[in-house]
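Example record for the data management plan.
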Amino acid sequence: MVKVEAEPDAGGWVCQVQVEHAGEHTQHTVKVSAAELGRWGGGDQQRDVVELVERSFEFLLLREPPTSILRRFDLSAIQRYFPEFDREIR
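Corresponding structural encoding:
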């Protein structure tokens, strides 16, 4: 389960993410810029941010356990570790 709470921030959003996966519980802070939301989220509303971050964590959880996911990161960092993110998340 991935639970996302998004709050507006200068130039984008800050999301608090709680993950429960395979018996592990983790918390993460993810920054999403307006440009990232436009590129991968297709909208500009809070629900669009939440959906994008949820899909991003589903992507990550297919590739690594929640304890391996960075605790704080900008959403664009994912494609540095997983180049296929850009293609698959759209």
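Summary line stored alongside the record: The chain has one domain: 2-89.
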